[in-house]
Amino acid sequence: QWSPVIIKQLLICNFRSSICQALVLEIGETVQILEKSEGNSSQTFYGNGIFPVSYVHLKKSTVTNRGLCETVVPLEDPIITETTSTLQEWGVLWKQLYVKHKVDLFHKLRHVMNELIDLRRQLIQGHLAQDQTREIKRHITVRLDWGNEHLGLDLVPRKEFEMVDPDQISVSELYKMHVSSRHCGQQSTNQGDSIRQRHGDGCRVPVSHHLFINLKSFTYNSISEDADVFFSLYDTREAKQISEKFMVKLNKNGGPKNPEKVDRLCALFTDLSSKDLKRDLYIVAHVIRTGRMLLNDSKKGPPHVQYRRPYGCAVLAMSDVFHTITDLKEEKDFVLKVYTCNNENEWCQIHENIIRKSNTKYSAPSTNYGLIISLQLLRGDLEQIRRENQAVFNRALALTRKLGFPDVILPGDTRNDLYLTLERGEFERGGKSVQKNIEVTLYVLYADGDTLKDCISLGCGEPNISEYHSFVLYHNNSPRWSEMVKLSIPIDRFRGSHLRFEFRHCSTKDKGEKKLFGFAFTPLMREDGTTLSDESHELYVYKCDENATFSNQGLYLSLPCCKEDFNSCPNLPANLPFQRSPKETFWVSTILCSTKLTQNVDLLALLNWKAHPDRVLDILGRLRQISGEEIVKFLRDVLDTLFCLLDENTDKYGPLVFQSLVFIINLLRDSRFYHFRPVMDSYIQNHFAGALAYKELIRCLKWYMDRSAEVVRQDHIQEAMRALEHLFKFIVQSRILYSRATCGMEEEQFRASIQELFQSIRFVLSLDSRSSENLVFTQATLLNSFPDIFDELLQMFTVQEVAEYVRGTLGSMPSTVDIGQSMDVVKLQSIARTVESRLFFFPESRSILLPVVLHHIHLHLRQQRELLICSGILGSIFAIIKTSSMESSVQEEVEMMVESLLDVLLQTLLSIMSKSHSVETSRGQRCPQCTAEITGEYVSCLLSLLQQMTEIHFHHLLNNFHSKEELKEFLLKIFCVFRNLMKLTIFPRDWSVMRLLTSHIIVVTTQFLSPALHKNFSEADFDFKVWNSFFSLTVLYINQPSLQLEALGPAKRKKVLDKHGDMRVMMACELFSMWQKLGDNKPHFIPGMMGPFLGVTLVPQIEVRNIMIPIFHDMMDWEQRKNGNFKQVEAELMDKLDSMVSDGKGDDNHRELFSLFLLEKIEQETWRETGISFVTSVTRLVERLLDYRDCMKGDEMENKKIGGSVNLMNFYKSEVNKEDMYIRYIHKLCDLHLQAEDFTEAAFTLLLYWELLQWEDRPLRDFLHYPCQSEWQRKENLSRKILHYFNKGKCWEYGISLCRELAFQYETLYDYQSLSWIRKMEAAYYDNIIEQQRIEPEFFRMGFYGRKFPFFLRNKEFVCRGYDYERLEDFQQRMLGEFPQAIAMQHPNQPDDTILQSDAQYLQIYAVTPVSDISDVPQLERVPERIKSFYRINNVSRFHYDRPFHKGPKDRENEFRSLWIERTTLILSRPLPGISRWAEVERREVVEVSPLENAIYVVDNKTQELRTLISQYQHRQHHGNINPLSMCLNGVIDAAVNGGIARYQEAFFDKDYISSHPEDTERITHLKDLMQEQVHILGVGLAVHEKLVHPEMRPLHKKLVDQFHMMRAGLHHGVPGVDRFVPAGCTGVNSPRGILSSHSHMSPESVRLIHRHSPLNLQGSIRHSSSSLSSHTSSEAGNLVIMTDGLMGEHPEEALHMQRCGVFQIVSVLQPSPSSSSLSSIRSNSSQIINSAPSSARGSPSLPDKAKHNREVMILLPSHRERANNSMYYNMAENGQVNTTGNCNSDPPPALPVRSLRKSPLHPIPGSPTSPQSALGGSNSTLSGSASSGVSSLSESNFGGQYPDPGPIRNDALEPLPSHLWSPPDEYLASPYLHIHYGGPEIDSMDPVRPFHYRSPVGLAALLLDRHLNGHELDDFPSVPRVWKPT
Fold first, then answer.
1. Structural domain boundaries of the chain?
2. With a threshold of 0.70, does the pTM exceed it?
């Protein structure tokens, strides 16, 4: 059975359950219970689920607003609730701190959270006292505010440690709470002080300090007697003791003599002031032992006689320990070393000697001898300390007081202590041979002779004694004791009591007698009633002996006790009972500290005035000389005496009594006697009996007032003014007593006298004080005291009457202009205290006082004076009105304030705000009124006033303006102030409550003001300025950061919405409503308000967008009506969209809503088509802007940023034709290129702007970073900048055309200086083209598929120009890094619609080859390769890639017959390089290449490569270095042994193929011719090789010749005419054996690795050499054979010979597999790195397994250790010419036949996307056996992990060949062959910016080869094994 119940429960344990209806609950969560069910086994609860009752704890709560939106409020302390919610919020943020690595704050916050949990636990337990609870709350709030501040959370305004409700207090109060909440601890501590200061007391009550001391141990080893230790505080500067002594009695073992005092030897030195702590204080400890006379002589005195003897002293400087114990709550230990006195005569000064470190006067008996004490400094009132430290006070704590009164004398503090110090004595020797051992015994005796029991105290901590024995100084007749005792004598026994001092000589003989030899005495009180004065007294010593009797003290009391006493007793009898010893004297000093006894004769005379009535006037006159302490001790008696005198004779004593009363009242203003003010008040209320005194007091007071205009010295008048409060208290109380006694008689006379008194007060205040400084002080004093009398007046008069008195007084003050600034301040302070007084809280009085208060404030605000005080007064008024808001009179008061203050408040705020942003008045100083404090104060005052205003107030306000101009001025002011509130940071960011309340008041005020705007300034009276101000305000309001709720957490957002709603929607509705009311005046705001309104629509709030977007349709419609188009709207909208979206505003939702709303409304319009076009353009712009913004985020990659910029720039140019935005984005794009160091792209980007400019003198305005200049100047400057970037990008060919353009302009202007400069630059560019090496980049095709890509990339493909040395794999990794969510596609096929429309990112990347437009490329063979290579890779807009496939069934005997190439050509929208490294693919073309055409292409390219290389050796361009030629010949000839071109012969020269393909007859013939030509070229190459080969390399040459014969023999059968190509000198060479001949036995799938020795990264020198093999193929069929010094074979001696020659051989085993023959070359940079990773590693597509082939390569190079002796290499002479050294044949090598020369095409067929880029340049291997084939098929998996990465590579470049080498010698011209000449060797320069990546061992070898072929030394590669080095 479920029964309904609503209670609140708190989870005490996590709950998880498998039941579907069960809730999942976490510990600490709160659940609200709706129903419960009682069962036999368990009890469960039902809410949104069920859970067991045992998991929750019941929490008391109340339910408000029952229903769907009910709220459950827990019945607990609000601060507990706040702590709980705050800790939950912090818990989430605390973990985030750890994630963000803010470790320091993480640990601090954890500590604070633990403290809060502990404090909250103490508060919940509820076992604390009220003061403790308050302190706990203070600690909690301090920690809550600290954590909120450091976590960036909102500041919580508090009052008395609890959160305040902003609705219950005024805005001014809320502002002050925000200001003070950060210092809530200080606020609570100083609360009492601030209250007192507010009520006119500038005094600050001193804070007492108390020093806790605890004696822990006393270690000694030499006394072995009982000891007394006396602790005291000593001031070294004044050389006096300032405290009583704390006494500790110890036994001979060093422990307490009283066993009960173990661990209780502690004292508290009380009442130390702050001034005392600054003194040079020491803790002094004197040790007095009790025992024998001498420690080291047991014969001196019998053991049963005990003497008090001085032993030692210890000191501790308090300055050393105060800083360590001030802030500690626990005690701190200190050690005091005890020193003994070397001479007992100086015992009284031992502490001084130790402090002064007079080492000769004291000594230390032992090093480990001393006192261990602990100290603790406590602060505050003694009662408070007693409550807070109960454990300390429970340890029998001895309270040790100061000598004299403390700084603060409490009324109930009764003391009567007489401190007596035995100073010194002078005694006769008395016939003794040695001096006496004198002991003094002190007795206190009554008048009747009885000894006063237990009144002598040696020190606190021990009980009092009845007689005191001083310590004994050994053999000293002039002893100096300086020992103090305290005498506690009852007051009633003080008169008549006396002190008697008995002097005894302590014998050290066997009997140990103490013989009396004299005495002295002194009475405690003199005859006149005064006590013993605080000074030193010299007492007479009278002789006596042991037989003398003191039973009759009258015998000696009649004797003079001292010299003063002797002088007053001239007639002494001759036969005295005791004879004075004239040579013996005794000195004592006394200090009286008594609240009942006085030493002042004048005070006693005043109190006993009746005994001498004739001296009263004199006594009253001397009252000022009496000490304040004495007066306050007898305050009641003195006041009674004064008023008794007043009653006795008013006329005679009246003025003096008045003066005395004023003096006493002002005495209580002293901070020392502040606590006696309640005593005075209590006296007035309970003891004062002067019923007639009021008449004289009023008369005297009025007399003083009236005299103020005449008297020059006005000190006495000012004193009377200061005492005004208590004088009025006496007056009122006296009148009450009189009225009570007489039943109200003389009431009219009293009222008249008060009226006259107030007239005198007004008279004083109305005087012109500018000429009299004294009068200024009098008026100021009167104004300060005036508010204090209100409460007294209210006892006698009605509220209205008192208010009238006050109003008249305040009204009598002169205006601001007539008084000085100091009086101005005092006047306002008086008004402020009037407003804060109880009088102002009564509505009846407030209605009277408010006008005069507002009048004065109005005057000050008009003149901008004393703004801070005025704001304080206004804040108090608003606070009172807010609390009284339920009263009917408040509406009238608000009306009054609106009329008086609203306008001047607005004016003041505008002035303050303008000053705060103006230039500083002087360096480092700002006007004090321009501070944030004043601004905040006045903003809060204005908001308070607006908050109090109702609709009626606004109605009256708006109707009371006399003209529309006044209304307009008011509206402009208030709108301006509101705008400034939102633009300026008036309130800090974390003042969320204040900012939200401000926004609420502004929107409500705006709703009240907008009807007046519409009513008065519409249609014919339209005023643009007011309307524009209104619209600007609304736009700023909606865009306020504090109102953007989307940035808030869910809890805070809900809280704001519940309290205020979404104020943006409220203001947007108001804005839309007012826009509609504009009517025909709307065009005034078109297009001016387009941008602001657009900013409002970009606010991420759906309702705001729904309200605001239709306005744009309205604007378009009005613009269409006015101009016939809406070009202005379009232009403005696009301009603003760009800046706003770039600033982070806007999203896709805005774009969709904008399009949807406007298209829907445009459908009905006549201008529908243009409207739709406009909306579409805007939508497309927003798409691009959003993409651009996403790309420009800080963590995005450069490519994405550049792509977004290009996309947006092109949009502005092509679609909307906005030139200024287009130029702006040109420069943004240029900056991005410069950041990425893409200088070529930066130059092309600036060229876009350059093309827009003309060579004219038209002036241009300043724009971006360009100054005002002519168009010609700007274009010239731009040209120079572009030239600079082209130069840095090494694109000098592009710069040359620009140089010519500039040269033409300079020549036209006859500017020969500039012309010379530009011509030199052009020449330098030509030099750079010839001399400097340029890296040829790779090109990659990218496809971006899927809807998750940015708009400018989505489902598009691009070609990218790679960075220097960047290979496919590097590029893929970079792209995947830029798009981490992208999935790499593993095939090159075009994606289907599934991928295109998917919500994902697919990235497709592979390499492509540029196809250059060769129409303008230099085609002459003599043109250097580096010149032609530039045109092959620049200004290219066509790229292609190949894909091999089998058409029809695969030919298993020879795959070449069926292997076709699918060639895809990509046509770009713009050529590369250009404004970006990327260019979009505009269209694609696909063609198929037959197997035969591919074979022709491959063979032809290889032939051209051979011809080029051989011709270079013919012209001695590779003098001495024969290795490149050796490798190239070896790669072709050796491959032929294992197949080579024979595979093509088998495929295409077969009779079956020829018969079945009659259409290919011509192509077959062509292929035969090419093969024959290649054999001829090989023959010439071998001839050249024979001429140049080194003798040690002859075995290699012999092997090449043998293999050439085998190749020729193989071709002889299928290709007739091969025999003619036999090189001279190559006949009869036997075929090599061993390892080389073993290649034919390799299977196609074999992998041959003979030796791995050093990581060689093979990189060829020849461009366009590549294999179409995929990485997949190469990874499975690694086929590199590297022969090093570990060669193996049938003839190891041959290998050994090659090793000695320093030769490595890489042999490309040419087996014409389908893949190798079918793939066209992909252009490769000679200096770049081979990308040979498997396809699986980089996501590139792969071929089927059937396309596998193997390839083996060997390199022949000189060994490392032989390189020094090898002289077959060329050197570069200093002049750049080539010098040849070595044993090479000096005869010129045979030239190539003329008929064999062919022009090689510059653009061979590139490789497919499935193949890795070849390391060797040039074409595919004709015989599928070039070094490049082997390199490209090498798998990284075989070698990649074995070798370390080489180090950096130098950028050394060789100088070019001299010009004479470009012309062939005459003997060459006479030759039957045509020689081909080239410039210097190609030298690759390394990019110093990007790292050099190594991908495989083979890549390094290829790099070495390429470097060597291009003339680089091996020294360029420091980390590469040295294979050769030119001499």
1. 2-74, 79-189, 209-400, 416-597, 967-1085, 1339-1485
2. no
